[in-house]
Specification:
The protein is of the alpha/beta class. It has two domains: 246 residues, HUPs (Rossmann fold); 38 residues, no CATH class. It is built from twelve helices and eight strands. Strand 7 and strand 8 form a beta hairpin. The longest helix has 19 residues. It is globular, with a radius of gyration of 19 Å. The protein binds iron/sulfur cluster and zinc ion. Iron/sulfur cluster binds next to helix 6.
Length: 293
């Protein structure tokens, strides 16, 4: 690992990986041994590695899987999640989107948003709702250094100040939002894949069919080519942002939030995005046609 000037054998790599997660949890005061953690698991390498490490470190970490209804991809993901839940002897909560709203491929017909943006909104909504209703202190997601540095680059290129101020490893609890944390921000995609392989986690390798052409993929590629020429670039880009730039946003960028009149979740408008979507699904299904907009 040239960025750390480290070369480890497999046993030492596993220990190093777990220690790095532990150090990140402590450094950013993400949660303590007393907190109840809900890990959002997708079946991919990052979230499964995170779940296993947190349990191994002795944290009380249950899993939350959202069945997005994306055909075979979703069923194969779910198999991996169920297998790890079994292996860990951990509790797994499953939300079936078809029952709650509609599957992602169907929901696309009711929204003008890009599929991943729509899917992201739906997932964030249910992570928060389930965590709050079931009394979890914190939601942990498997975002790694590549995800965060790539998203940061995208937000810098578009000078998207609202998101730029929130690209942090911890989003504190506020007005109906449960605290959200990303304990893998010091680890790269390659490192989490290696952790899974070496520790016997079977994860889904195929990509979601909707991920093709997503701009975040090209941002990650750009950062990878910079990293190759100058190891440590990704780490510097993200952690120097946290240390030097993010504090400047603390007072400047603030979201005005209220409570959704229909479901009671926090929302920037009187009725939240999910409830508006639900209304469209119900109305248009009733009239037997679909629409975008
Ligand atoms: Fe959802 Fe997009 Fe991820 Fe597929 S790639 S699971 S649509 S966010
Ligand atoms: Zn709502």
């Amino acid at each position: 690992m040239p960025q750390h000037r480290l070369a480890l054998c497999s046993q030492d790599f596993l220990k190093w990986f777990e220690k790095t997660v532990h150090r990140t949890v402590k450094e950013f005061r993400m949660f303590s041994e007393e907190d109840r953690v809900l890990v959002a698991v997708s079946g991919g390498k990052d979230s499964l590695a995170l779940w296993k490490v947190l349990r191994k470190l002795g944290y009380s970490a249950d899993g939350l899987y959202i069945d997005l209804g994306i055909g075979e991809y979703s069923s194969r993901s779910q198999e991996r999640v169920l297998a790890l839940a079994d292996q860990l002897g951990a509790e797994l909560i499953t939300v079936n989107l078809r029952e709650e709203l509609a599957a992602i491929p169907e929901l696309r017909e009711y929204s003008s948003r890009e599929t991943c943006s729509l899917c992201g909104m739906v997932k964030r909504y249910f992570f928060n709702k389930v965590a709050r209703e079931r009394g979890y202190d914190v939601v942990a997601t498997g975002h790694n250094l590549d995800d965060e540095a790539g998203a940061l680059l995208g937000n810098v290129l578009g000078w998207n100040l609202r998101y730029l101020g929130r690209k942090l490893p911890v989003l504190e609890e506020e007005e109906g939002f449960v605290r959200k944390v990303k304990p893998l921000v010091r680890l790269t995609e390659k490192e989490t894949a290696l952790y899974c392989i070496l520790s016997g986690i079977d994860y889904i390798e195929e990509e979601c069919p909707f991920s093709e052409g997503a701009p975040t993929i090209s941002y990650k590629e750009i950062l990878n080519s910079l990293e190759e020429k100058s190891p440590g670039t990704k780490m510097r880009f993200y952690f120097e942002y946290i240390r030097r730039v993010a504090p400047l946003f603390e007072r400047g960028v603030h979201r005005e939030l209220t409570t959704c009149r229909v479901c009671g979740e926090p929302s920037p408008a009187e009725v939240c995005g999910i409830c508006r979507l639900r209304e469209r699904v119900v109305n248009l299904k009733g009239t037997g046609r679909s629409s975008t907009g």
